[in-house]
């Protein structure tokens, strides 16, 4: 039988490892950007710097959480079942990073196409994503037990029963496809 560390923190450790690899790639990209595009607009340079700082904070917090739970408190199984403030920051920081990138994409769409409908659509979806991410961070902070995360699920995902059934079928099909391949 698998223990709590294998079930919850094993995938987190694998995800953190992949994140650390991608973080290294990002550092290389940021270095190349600042050495190659010295005359870029200041707001682009600030955006790149902001993304680097935010990703650095996210990576450090993820490392601190895993190190605290798996190394410093080794054998303290009750801690494996709870999220702390470091864990709760992850959705918020990830949402902020994603929104910054998506709003940059919206700006590029405006510059290239002048299509305000697409710009508005991307912007509204980006802002709704960060709002959801910040709400999730607060929910994790208020409900620190991993088993209680099930309570986050609302009665309806979309607000419409038939749409919920379609969403459930898509999720089940995706999970089945991934588990058989």
Provide a descriptive summary of the structure in words.
The protein is an all-alpha fold. It has 5 helices and no strands. Helix 1 (4-36) runs antiparallel to helix 2.
Which regions are unreliable across 5 or more consecutive residues at pLDDT < 50?
Answer: none
Q: Note the total helix count.
A: 5
Topology order in helix (H) and strand (E) letters: HHHHH
Return the structural class: mainly alpha
| Biggest sheet architecture | none
Fraction in beta strands? under 5%
User: What integer value in Å does the Rg equal?
Assistant: 20 Å
Q: What percentage of residues falls in helices of 4 or more residues?
A: over 70%
Label the overall shape: globular
What's the end-to-end separation, in Å? 24 Å
Say how many strands there are.
0
Query: What's the overall average pLDDT, rounded?
Result: 82
Key phrases:
181 residues; mainly alpha; globular
Brief description of this entry?
With 181 residues, the chain is mainly α. The chain has five helices and no strands.
Strand and helix map with partners:
Layout: H1 4-36, H2 42-72, H3 85-113, H4 116-142, H5 161-180
